[in-house]
Amino acid sequence: MMHSKSIVELGTGLQTGEFSSVELTRHFLQRIERLDKDLNAFISTTPEQALAEAESADQAIKVGQAGPLTGIPIVQKDIFCTRGVKTSCGSKMLDNFISPYDATVVEKLKHAGVVSLGKANMDEFAMGSSNETSFYGPVHNPWDKGRVPGGSSGGSAAAVAARLAVAATGTDTGGSIRQPASFCGITGLKPTYGRISRFGMIAFASSLDQAGPMTRDAADAALMLQAMAGFDPKDSTCANQPVPVYSATLSDPLEGLKIGLPREYFGEGLDPAVAASVEAAIDHYKRLGAEVIDISLPNTGLAVPTYYVVAPAECSSNLSRFDGVRFGYRCQQPKDLEDLYKRSRGEGFGAEVKRRIMIGTYALSAGYYDAYYLKAQKTRHLISDDFKQAFETVDVIMGPTTPTPAFGLGEKVNDPVTMYLNDIYTIATNLAGLPGVSIPVEPVNGLPVGLQIIGNYFTEAKLLNVAHRFQQETEWHRLTPELESVASD
Amino acid sequence: MQWETVIGLEVHTQLATKSKIFSGTSIAYGADPNTQACIIDLGFPGVLPVLNEAVVDMALIFGLAINAEIGPRSVFARKNYFYPDLPKGYQISQFELPIVGKGSLTIDLEDGSQKAIGITRAHLEEDAGKSLHEDFHGMSGIDLNRTGTPLLEIVSEPDMRSIKEAVSYARKIHQLVVYLGICDGNMQEGSFRVDANLSIRPFGQEAFGTRTELKNLNSFRFMERALNFELERQIDLLEGGRKVVQETRLYDPDRDETRSMRSKEEANDYRYFPDPDLLPVEINDQQLQRARQNMPELPDQKRQRFESDYSLSSADALMLIQSRHQADFFETVVSSGGDAKMAVNWVTVELTGALNKAGIALSQSPVTPEQVGGLLERIADNTISGKLAKQVFEAMWNGEGDADKVIEAKGLKQITDSGQIETIIDEIIANNPKQVEQFRAGKDKLLGFFVGQVMKQTQGKANPGQVNKILLGKLKG
Questions:
Q1: Contact A358, A368 (CB under 8 A)
Q2: Number of structural domains found in chain B
Q3: What is the pTM of this model?
């Protein structure tokens, strides 16, 4: 079963000629065709381009010019601009938008030889934690179709979990890679802010947005990150830092690793079963030689309120370009300029996006700027300082990725504040710009649970190493949801 | 009542870069609409700005020239508002930490005294596009070529107390940025635009009156007319017992009036905040050092140097430095052999006259400064007379080559051989006995007649000094 293999395993199969990339691609396209109607993980599939890419991958393999990602079928979150392909960002606003250019991430992955099967569903403009804000309808969690896959990279997570793609790209502004990875039982890495170029990634909150890989396991994440990371002169906030060989240190021993457990991440609101699962994983690390230290991140409580000022403020400005003038949705027969703006934006954006634009506009308004935006910048510093202090004594920080496993579809959609609290453990790392990875640990009642590992700046290699050592000895990341009563392949 | 005028100016200078401030698109003037706008200028989803480093150096040079506070840190901010010619829905500008802080510029007043005008700040920003409201049958056309053009907005303190001072300040800024090579100064193409804030108050009152802002004054003449109109309008309002409303007004040069554009109530809340897509600009000593080294001589320095190095009068020096090009032209004339005082006259009178007559700019002059220098050298060494020099200049203008070539070709070389001149004079004295007699009887005026005869005979080539001397000797003897 080709679809049950990881990138590393598929690479061997392609190299040895066990199967070709075209066969592999067809296989995944058929699976999508058959299974995605129940999941809705894809906004669009691009079979022609995928097969063309697979053919050239097979050529490259034949002449010995293949890299580890050559011929591997993945899915791109529909937030990444892809030349000649609809790039909707999950919104009616961009339902008609065919990007004239490739995002740097897309370009880099193409260069690495991947095959792109299509574009993954997501919360509209990446605003949401359940994938229910998508113009294209919610994505269903492959583990329980009545539940959400998480968001905003819900389509990416569901596609990888359901083995509709080997790997996916995601973006994470407040947890949008890690939370769906946790809900869907896959590995999701949000790198350090600036590690991966944001050029061509449709902006939600520019100072928080960061792309990252969503994969079966840490070894695959290392290969994806390798291709995605690196300096890009087109993005001023992209770090000019050397990119290490992530696969090289995956199996380094963890003896003496200092793991910090923030007491604020294990307090009120955390589902006891999730806590038990996470603690069991941490016990496993102790057996691998790690030392566990209780720490405090005292300003954790400020993270969600800070985020819900900073992110909307930036989004209110970032989304101003969607005005019905040059691209995207335009209302029918506008009376005048004001009518064009009001109706194009009013009709083109969904409720959550409008809510955040309004919050952000308010926070930046004259007379409120100091009380909200400026204050949030200050609390953001406090949150960063918490981590800075913690990393003076520990190597990594661990805790649950989310307080609960995946919740039900429709359960929180009318209660934005409860929805926002789902990102309580993930948001602070975005505010601080730190890297974090979520890996599957023991499920609760058949639903995946994620362990979050947070590292210091640019320590993705360490995070992947810590994640990989766990996955070498456990099987949680191999669990696959039951999607077909009759296994047809 | 006696009213005092208070004016402050915002000058938008287009920086003389090759490409836009945040993208690699050309900013060459005159391209077809929307042919110079890339996906970044168009604000496409996902694009990001990258700062054109050249604009920082240009802004620093300006900052140094006005002795401004600079650095160490400057931040780009977003100014949010909706307009079709503003693709992103925000303009990248600077708000809290502009690249250039407080400085000042000294202007010359009519009575010969000087006055320092405070400059509050100068900040970098991108220009918006152009909306064209005619020719589209009730719709508007948008040209985004201008979008992202780098601007340095120079904001003055409300330090000007008359329209003359305001115009003088604007001219001085214009002169300065052109001198610094950071702006081409072309007002017709919109490279230098002025917004003026004007208010009036009774003399002696400290508090400022309510101001109005006049937008897009793109010539000094329009600026003066617009301010005059606005001043009269405000005086009329206040003297008629009414109030000035704080608003933005647009000057219509065709009707010579200002019209309300938007009032304070309608003004946008721009919701400025630091642009998260751009890193703060950190200004280090090295950069400042480089800017200092790249800084050309400033107009005031040049004026002083011209006075001392070339012993020019203050008025001559001031006239020469009006434009950097003219000053450079002058200096090349001098270094190619021209006497400085003669060069002033030739550059500012003869050459300028010819250029004006032909309706062309100095940069288009068919005569090079080296040619003028060569000509002046021939005057100084008595090869030709000053009178014939104009003939030579005309020939050079017509492309007949440099001075020596023209003199040679036209046989204009001055006769300085005393023997030759004497022979001619002897002949003239012999042929005009009556006039000789009258001269000797005391009719001194007749000297001119004899000089004229010599010149006629020599086609003006005889050295006038020698002619005078020899004639006098012969006539009196």
A1: no
A2: 3
A3: 0.90
